[in-house]
Predict the structure of MFS transporter.
Amino acid sequence: MVNTVPEAPPRDLLSRIGIPKKISWGFAGIFLFMVGIGLELSWLSPYLVDRGVDVSVVAAVFSTYGVTVSIASWLSGVFFEIVGAKRTMLIAFLLFTAGTTLFVLVGVQQQAVWALFAGYAIKGFSYPLFSYSFLVWIAYRAERDRMSAAYGWFWFAFSGGMSVVGAYGSDLLIKAMGEIPVLWCTIAWAALGTFAIVVLNRDDIKPDRTAHRWRELASLFTIVRTEPRLLLVLGIRVVNTLPQFGLPVFVPLYLQQFGYSTSEWLSIWGTIWLSNIVFNLLSGHLGDRMGWKRTIAYFGGFGGAVSVLAFFYAPQVFGHNYWALLIVGLLLGMCIAGYVPLDAIVANIVKSNKGAALSILNLGAGLSTLAGPLLVALFAHLIGYVGVAWIMGLLYVAVGCTVWYVTPRKSAA
């Protein structure tokens, strides 16, 4: 008699492509919510200046926003563990609505500077709680051998909503209805995302009633002591999206020297992130096959260094050549996607308390929104735009060298 081992049940389509079936609607919710975030990002700063707000005030408002985004990113994982999945999403939506209402109704329409600061600061707490908390949800629901692919789908939804549909859609909506209605429209998109993730998504993770809440909060500090590799993760994650938040500060001005129009810049910038969301998926699947650390080092680290410098030098080599810059931009978007497996590594560094571990990763994402503009502010006048580009490139090289020291419990490298 031959002993047979029963075969594992076949995976459904969603599981085969890397989306955990239990939380599939959550990915749609992330996409819709991030459209609401992205609709205002590419034009809000110059719009406020055109309405008479001083440039220094606008810069301070966005810096304050970066600080609250960083704080919320850091707290998001542990907040998820303490409050529970769907409650976290609802709280994030309420913060988004309250912040937007104060910002638009009082800050923009009545030109009250205090409301610009307060409203945008409140709004800064919202999207990290909504989106980065979902990273913890994925850590609990995704299969380990498809985890990198699951995070690839997350970043596909995140970047696709904020940097692609949000960027292209804002141009169309502003032409159709004007700036103020578009700002109000962001609440509708956030509401759709919340509906998808809270109502259509049937899964939930309840808070652990036996856990001590203060102990959970303390783990934000103690986990770095017990897992010092997370400090490397923090630095790597900050570097990951430096171009996303740093390049828009100076590249539009830099490109004007070579005859590029604002429309051309916006088109190239949107296409970079269109390529990024496609390669987010490919990078997730590649990480599960080629190895998580190899993907980050070769594509995200060394590839990122080459591509960010090529993007800066392309206008000097080719002059006002839209297609040449676009092709180099596609390469940059691809390499930034090389960091997708980092989420899977962090989720597997610790056996428990995944929320605290992912909070460190999310803190890096939040700090990147602050570090990008700060890097330009500190060094552009000292060493010029070329110096800023080289700093970004060298930081990417550093990632390619150091990521090998970040080892999950069962190495996937």
